[in-house]
Amino acid sequence: MIRLSLTLGLAVLAAVTSAQAAELPAEIKQAGTLKLTVNSTYAPMEYRDPATNELVGLDVDLANELAKRLGVKIVWSETPFAELIPSLQTRRADFIISGISDRASRRETADFVDYLATGPQFFVMADNAAKDATDLCGKKVGTTRSTSFPVEIEKWSKQNCEPAGKPAIQYVPGENSIDVRNQLKQGRIDAAVQGSETLPYAQTQESGKYRVVGEPFAKGYQGIMFRNDDAALREVVTEKLTAMIADGAYKAVLDKWGLGANAVAQPMLNAAPQ
User: Fold this and answer.
1) Is residue 63 a contact partner of residue 48, using CB atoms and an 8 Å limit?
2) Whether residues 193 and 88 fall in one domain
3) How many CB atoms lie within 10 A of CB 1?
4) Within this chain, do residues 82 and 55 fall inside the same structural domain, yes or no?
5) pLDDT for residue 240
6) Count of the separate structural domains present in the chain
7) Which of 123-127, 135-139, 257-261 is predicted with the least confidence, judged by mean pLDDT?
8) 114 and 6, same structural domain?
9) Which residue has the higher pLDDT, 105 or 94?
């Protein structure tokens, strides 16, 4: 099923890029700017550098390179994660590139150009006794409420805890990844879940504090999110991203942030599993 989805996604994008070169929508081209909004609490994807207060991150670098190739400048804004999709729908943002997962439930009004492999992963404080993910059955596990991770945790618990005769994981909501890690450090939860792309950075920033438990327990993709009726913008961004992958600029950005292993071979349209 996953392989079929990837094949279909690649086929659609091949059809797009084989057509005549896409162009920016007239209003964006005339204004010379892209309006982009991010939730700047998801390092290393997008966050405020504590030393400079500058907005930085993998998504920021990718967006800046895309804008350069499109010949426009970016007007950045920030919003809570739960407001990212409303920002797109109300046209406060032209597209969303902010650590947002491609999910079938989000495709009623939007399309995703998938550009980074990801997956939810359990982690604990370094002194926690858990050796295997099933040791977290019956424990309090926190994650950001507005992500896909609460559903993934529930699904994993049903597939792994219940068949082993163990109690289900107790999901505890958090506002964002910073809040969840604070709950973990304060002992309010036993473990936490974040995207696998964020944990290496968290471990380098707080050396020796966290320990990953097991492998990512689901596979997915982060995507650049476009309104369904913005096919022209989606196509031109896809074209530029494809060129970035081909000429190595995409790889350079991922390597800079230590996430070369999360690379995709080509942009994919709505390719995440259903």
Assistant:
1) no
2) no
3) 7
4) yes
5) 98
6) 2
7) 257-261
8) yes
9) 94
